[in-house]
Fold each of these.
Amino acid sequence: MHLLIEAIGFGVASGAVLALGAVGFTLQFGISNVLNITYGSLMTLAAFLGAFLLGLGLNVWLVMALGGLLIGVASVALNRGLLSPLIRRGLQPFGLIIVTVSAGIVVQYMIVAVAGPSTVAYGNLSGATLHFLGWTLTTAQVVILVVALVLMVGLHILLTRTQLGRAMRATSSNRTLARSCGIATTRIGDIAWFLSGTFCGMAGIALAITVESFDFTLGSVVLIPIIAAAVLGGVGQPYGAMVGGLVVGIVSQVSAAYWSPSYENVVALAMLIVMLLVRPRGLFGANSSSRKLLA
Amino acid sequence: MRRALVIPAAGLLAVLAGCGASTPAGKPAKPGPINVGVVAPFSGPAAEFGTLLSAPCEASALLINNAGGVLGHKFQCTPVDDTGDAADAVPNVTRAVATISNFDMALGLESNTAATTVPIINKAGIPFVTTNGLVAFNRTSDKYFWRLTPADNANGAAFAAWAADKGFKKVAVIFENNIGSQGNLPGILSAAPKLGLKITSNLTIPADASSYSSVVSTVLSGHPQALIFSADPQTTATFLANYSQLNNGSMPPMITATDSLTPDFYNAVAKAVGASYLLHDMYLVGSYFSNTTPAFYAYKQAMEENPKTHAIAGVITTVGPPASAYDGMNILALAMLASKSTTGSVYNSYVQQIVSSKPGDVVVHTFAAGKKALSQGKTIQYVGVVGPVTFNKYHNFAGQFAVVVFTSATQSNSVKVISGAQVSQLLQ
């Protein structure tokens, strides 16, 4: 029982990072309908930018915020400079996926060209180990949990209590109708890509803090669990992605504790398949086939 | 399912590659340098092996070229990126065999990719010295295969022997789920009962996970006195950091493979848990060689003089696989001279002759000395860094084992020799 409680704690800690990533991933998909596989490489880029910024002597949490903003800008640039022109030329969704896969590989190898293939580490930033409710977490993990929680509450307020949030939800629900109602859908798209990139960047740096040491494959390794979390929660559903991230994290850690650690991702993905067989729309998916933020 | 499709496809490509590649090795060398293909990962998570295996090639090439080369050819080391993935390696190695001029010798072909790269290179008729430890090659019939490093199961038994020697009674065995790391496991499982070692946990872990906390919790419940561990730098750093966090900052000693004796590994782990752990509690076990022989001095000097290897000479020269690759390259180059041919199918049959002891042999420790003796019409026995070599009928030679410790990121010391006979007994 003690091991189970401990494993759930570890799962919540790693799930918080996955949730951050999954929320960004699903938020952007909900608005743009582009399955952005470059996301993993942007997380890696954030981690390397974080190493550079830490080298300048900045505080790690400031670095996390700055890294998030920089990747937010990069994310908008990716959409404006590459994906939007291709969409305007009529490239189909499958073609777009291939473009994002390719762009991800280009970004990954640009990182190698600049930083080399060796591992990079921030140094031990974990802080003291804390014990409560049978859980054992580091100070850094607790801070990441709190940051994730604050960001998600902030996103909730943005989407439900502000004019911008309503415009984003309208664009997500029906882009053409939103545009005809006077919503600047292109600008809304930019904001969605920026927010998605910010979550992506912060998740990348949070992951780099957690793993202690990483290389240029960092983001690609967690991309599948992040997509799994997004799909589990219901594609385009930020709340679903939050819950999905936690569920994937907890299931992975519990299965590692009780079964074979080498199959921890397999168990999480098998659970995803079973979930989708039972509830194809995911945990928080909309009833209709259309995508709706917070439907 | 996807993996099941990839493996036959890789095998098919390997066969096709071999068919198409037999021509270059059968032809006399064109003018220009002999290309020594360093078949190793130069990209991806295992890219450190590329550095590890390029260095001895560069050192040997420097000395061979300083001695005037072979039959009018200089030697040149050419990276062939196998990416560390058996399926991805196939097109890269196939392309290299088909396009690199005078590709007459190969080094590397490490454990992660050997299953697909060895057949391609062997079929192409290119003699090669492999550093892979796969047990499957203990009884190979591949004609161009030569191995001067121990099989992984023997390495595993040596891990256990060192654990027992240190007085540990309870160890946890944790290996990454790759073929190179997993190859050690049978040796440990065979040796542990004979040495009175209790294995408290025997776990396989995925590489580069975001957390190993649950694994560490399981390991901690067995109260091991030491960890027998093998994984890439990032995985090791994350695992140890999690161990420290969950065990009040304390970690038991770790026994791992000398493959990890790289600056990259040192830096990754040092930043996660501190350099003190690496310097005082980490033991790296691998093939042994003496660092007081004339061959070793020549090897180390070449490593230090070469600008490409100077920075890592201190640590690389304490590791078995690079030393065996260096010796292997010298042996193959001397076989070229003895056979008066750079064609693989011709000089390959002279390899045994170069290392075996025969009446009237001149014992040589460097390529230059061997070239001089051969030019005087003498027969030679090459005794290199790894000592006298006796290839068995499967072209395998295991030798002895050493326990090495880090003294800095780029320096290390050998602290114990484990005899090959002891390891063989543990495997029976």
Amino acid sequence: MERSVAWKAGWEGLWATHHALLWVLILGGLVLLYMGESPAYVYGLLLQGSLGGVAQISATLSASTPYLLCGLALAFGFRAGLLNIGAEGQMFAGAILAALWGRSLVWSGSFVWLLLIAALAGALWAMIPALLKVRFGIHEVICTIMLNYIIFAAGAWLVRQPQIRVDPTIPRTADIALAAQLSPLSVGGLRLDVGLLLGGVLAWGLWRFLRDARLGYEVRVVGLQPEAARHSGIPIGRRLILAFVISGALAGLAGGLYVASPQHPYFEPDFSPGWGFWGIALALLARNHPLAVVPAALLFGILETGASVLDTTRGIPREMIQLLQVTLILFLSTRFFQGKAGGSDV
Amino acid sequence: MFEALFSLSWVTLWGVTLAAAAPLALAALGGLLSERSGVVNLGLEGMMLVGAFTTAWVGLFGPSGVWGAMLGLLLAGCAGAMLAGLHGLLCLWGKADQIISGVALNIFASEMTIFLALWLYGTKGSTGILDDTLAGISLGSLRISWFFVLVLCVWLVLEILLWRTVWGLRLRACGEHPQALYSTGISPYKLQIVAVLASGFLAGLAGAALVHGAGNFSKNMTAGRGYIALAALVFGNWLPRRVLAACLLFGFAYALNFQLQALPSNKIPSEFLSMLPYALTLLALVGWVGRTRPPAALGKPLDI
């Protein structure tokens, strides 16, 4: 696609997205009015709680990290035509293996190993549905949902084991070694998650990979026109496996980064509010463009941090904001919010 | 490790199998209607969840007795159908990707029921226990769940409706070649929306069956059953008989899990037992590869 056309499509997509967001905010406002709250006040509080100061911005940035990685995982999968709803399970795989191995990673700089292990675990867990899809033609959605439940159960079993848990009353693993933890950078009082920076770099890398690399091009062709891919000799199965594995590695990395954080250097079965599932929303918001996942993740970080402030100060349940988020997915999936050119390809 | 298997009461196990298969079969037969008309319904999970929530709500606040339970069933079906209507609206009118719409509706239903439970009961976890639950008929020591009787009725109706009526022929044609159907002057959209609404109604009933089995509603209590129902659809090659058989197989995995967990002599960790239905579903899909054929136009948006 010509560069100017790509830009135009991108702008139209952005306009349609912004439109959908506006509608969702109006809908949420009506619900808030019904609940007897002032929408302007509540939305103001949400912004203040997430962007109102250095501490709030730090919290928002840190909340955005798992969204960013899971959003990238889903968006990359979608580019190959895969709906990797198993990102949640792959993230669990990454977090579990990171928490188990992290205890013995005691030499300095070993957080690199921790993250690599987590990404590898996610990739391996994604290999199963990838092979099942390519080899047996089993649809990835049913398959990954089953694998999700299997790994959730495995995680719940793991934290009950006496040699792994820290305390019989708390279902979680012992802390990982200090050297394997990743402290956030401090830039003039602002806490900056290393994971977020890493996610940003990965977003850029994935964008360039899809745009410029031959493999990336082939992955895109497989997603857009499997028939064309077949006729031009692209090994569809291998490209699908590649896309699934990269997607799984990104999700696994999200789990590893969670465990590597000094605030919670352990695995617990309910650590995730469903980041892997919200990845679908981010991919839709970003129209599967890796770079666009970054602002989408920041938006979700703002909403999450703001929602927890609303929950604690005004007693507005955070599910209310999550309902708005999922309504946004429903809106964006329809033709009314697709943008005229159908979104950008590059 | 497995000696516990021998101390199981097999007659009870069959009864539990029927009870566990009933919600799966209701959802799967609903999914069959929708998918035979060409619309993928991945939202079964969410429709079951809203159905379950509604049943529990009617059971706790509505009239008591059998009529209260019937009202609960009816409203559960309607709640499922409402969500299905949304699915139809998004997919048929909004041309949304049917798979994305279904998955998003599942998340929507999950958040919605948690939000409403918080609002109505002040808790995100589980509701109180219902007073009246429909149990079943006892034949000696075998207990046949009422919901399984309902499943058999639905199955019979579907067999006749889909293969012995003109409407059924049209519906199946709609899933295979909607353009051909359209050229004879019949609107595929009308058929599809009716099929999707009916599938939502049945999935809502499936949720009701879950609540009557468990005694209360708890958050995300469907735990993947909607997806297992879809797997049963694939496994059963979109034929009601075989889908029913597949649901019985998956129901057996659930029953084995429940019964073994309840046994004091059981040494297998409960988490591993709870993996049984999911693992069996995966195995069934792998083992049955290449022997099934979905409706030709399944999941393809119409441009009529």
